[in-house]
């Protein structure tokens, strides 16, 4: 994106990326990887990726960085 150097942790991108790399035979099944994001944002985030026979698992730890409320009118 224009003007955005980096995203915080994006598990919704990490899973499909691992699937693509597996499909292209760049990575192998039954292996694990780590993705580091958010360093430039001062919110370093480490995503754990596990490539298994039946799919890709994405995980990691989380913390609350902000809270809010959404009001929906009838």
UniProtKB/TrEMBL annotation:
Xref: InterPro entries: Phenazine_PhzF-like
Pfam family of the protein (one): PhzC-PhzF
Gene3D superfamilies this protein is in?
Diaminopimelate Epimerase, Chain A, domain 1 (3.10.310.10)
| Regions crossing the membrane | none
What are this entry's molecular-function GO terms?
A: catalytic activity
Signal peptide positions (record): none
User: What name does this protein carry?
Assistant: PhzF family phenazine biosynthesis protein
Q: Which organism is it from?
A: Flavobacterium circumlabens
């Amino acid at each position: 994106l224009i003007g955005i150097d980096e995203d915080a942790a994006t598990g919704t991108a990490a899973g499909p990326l691992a699937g693509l790399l597996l499909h292209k035979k760049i990575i192998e099944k039954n292996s694990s990887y780590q993705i580091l994001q958010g360093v430039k944002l001062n919110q370093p985030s480490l995503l754990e990726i596990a490539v298994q026979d039946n799919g890709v698992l994405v995980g990691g730890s989380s913390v609350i960085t902000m809270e809010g409320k959404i009001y929906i009118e009838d």
